[in-house]
Design goal:
Elements (H helix, E strand, L loop, with lengths): L9 H9 L5 H8 E6 L2 E7 L5 E5 H4 L3 H32 L5 H36 L7 E4 L5 E12 L2 E7 L2 H4 L2
Helix pairs in contact: 4-5
Length: about 180
């Protein structure tokens, strides 16, 4: 439906009704979107009635350096976990040969501290692995979510990207039934 008062329809009408702009700054606020990709969030702005969004390049293009850093992080975490588990196993074998009860108790506490560190490292390894998997396998690089100021979410695919210096003009293909009332 078109608003007789403003002539707006679709998303523009939805946002104008929910957040009536009192000035140009608030009008710009309504045009602001958040874009979620597998590698994070970015922002952009609607620039026309066809739902074109302007955003920074890093929002829609994944930085290969980050993937390399993730792989290095996973490799380092794996080595540290393996080394830590071996240290714990060696310490647990040694603890039974300690005759001094106080020293044995201190040794047990150190083992428990090391187990906690290893547990945290395993969680970090799992999280980094999931992030890398999502980037490599769960995300085509053409899928994204656009989140409006009122938390309405649209899934988008097949972004048309035209690069002009460091700014990207991205045409979003959103679910048309949700765009037009």
């Amino acid at each position: 439906m078109t608003s007789p008062k403003t002539g707006l329809q679709g998303i523009a009408k939805q946002l104008d009704d929910a957040y009536p702009p009192r000035n140009n700054i608030e009008r710009a606020r309504n045009a602001t979107v958040f874009i979620k990709t597998a590698w994070g969030f970015g922002s952009g702005f609607f620039i026309d009635d066809d739902c074109h969004i302007i955003t920074n390049r890093h929002v829609v293009e994944f930085d290969e350096k980050k993937m390399i850093e993730l792989r290095k992080k996973l490799s380092l975490l794996k080595r540290n976990i393996e080394k830590g588990e071996k240290t714990i196993a060696d310490a647990e074998n040694k603890i039974n040969r300690i005759s001094d009860n106080n020293y044995r108790q201190q040794y047990r506490e150190k083992i428990e501290e090391q187990k906690e560190k290893i547990s945290k490292a395993k969680k970090e390894y799992e999280d980094a692995g999931e992030e890398l998997d999502e980037i490599q396998f769960g995300f085509t690089g053409r899928e994204f979510k656009v989140i409006l100021i009122d938390d309405t979410e649209f899934s988008g695919m097949d972004a048309v990207i035209r690069v002009r210096e460091k700014i990207t003009l991205q045409s979003l293909v959103l679910n048309s039934q949700q765009l037009i009332d």
